[in-house]
């Protein structure tokens, strides 16, 4: 990836890497991979090899929407993890030797911030973007980068720019140009005040899959009084400690493959009913970004009455329409809302909180595949030659975590994922209508 050994400051952390970033949490194509069952706490993994567009098409614009990199737990979950660990550490002697490591364990994870692995994820993503789309860049047209104002999102965006710059041998040096305030109108952050939550669905599933685990742990640790919520916290500790140390945590071994798949399904329910299709006010949170995307794709002013910042979006400085690469950095919940507003990953039936097999083998709503740490959606605009037309026709193609999407919501979409730009815009009537009045229900 890099032509020589380089040192890059990852928001205050100095690291040296050669020919790409080597991490101990390796990607794998095996049918079962532990870290690919961690839901929103999974590290990014590509769902497919990148497939170039047809030879009759040429990419002329790229829009990247990316989640921040791997982080420590937020404050509330961190406290719950500490409580669950404390319960186990209060036990004088375990009945199962596999738990003995717990007596010597120190819970010292931070809260909220990126871990070094998470910073490296964004660095690698920036380098990948240059290597894939560098032909679009010139000294007069470098990527335009925005981020939501959360510290981990801002640092992820900044690290992406470092990776892009390094991959270009410091020839092209994008900067973070706009930070959107999460306390105000922000298309990169979920801002619907009256949105519901997924508690009913996730708690229903927790009550189904955790009792055998609760019994096993309490039998092995007499007097610990582990609860179902503690089980969930300990499973998240596996993920958080693994990304923090870049090695699989000892806590991961307390749970088997079936239990990890049940954990993933809880995360699937959380996103589906929290900000996705199962949440009445979930998709409307994605409307503003889609209208900004349409503006860029069509080189027309933003037309939106939801959560866009009209002052920023009406300025050619803070919302230019002439760039060839755009990169926006956000959170997992907002990516879910945008996918749902757009029509991606729509399920034939709602997820069943009592049955993880209800969607069958073809269920595409799997959180670790949608919004892992550093997960991303890429919208490519292409000019394609058509034999019956003198001028090239504008098309779009969408990739999520490297996999080309079929765009079955877009009339005339081809088998290789291409859809005419005008048909794509037509397909986004939910966004272009301002969310069919749903946005007003948020306040």
Question: Can you tag this structure with a few keywords?
Answer:
two-stranded antiparallel ribbon, alpha/beta, Rossmann fold, 13 helices
Description:
- By secondary structure, the chain is α/β, with parallel strands linked by helices.
- It folds into 2 domains: 6-69 and 116-184 and 285-356 and 363-442, Rossmann fold; 72-112 and 196-274, no CATH class.
- The chain has 13 helices and 10 strands.
- It has helices at 75-89, 116-133, 151-167, 199-209, 211-220, 228-245, 257-274, 287-298, 310-313, 332-342, 367-370, 421-427, 429-432, and strands spanning 6-10, 13-17, 57-67, 144-148, 176-180, 325-330, 376-384, 393-400, 403-404, 419-420.
- A hairpin with a 2-residue loop joins strand 8 and strand 9.
- Helix 1 (75-89) crosses helix 6 (228-245), helix 2 (116-133) crosses helix 3 and helix 4 (199-209) runs antiparallel to helix 7 (257-274).
- The longest helix has 18 residues, at 116-133.
- Keywords: Disulfide bond, Glycoprotein, Hydrolase, Secreted.
- Its main location: secreted.
- Monomer.
- Disulfide bonds join 57-384, 238-252, 410-419.
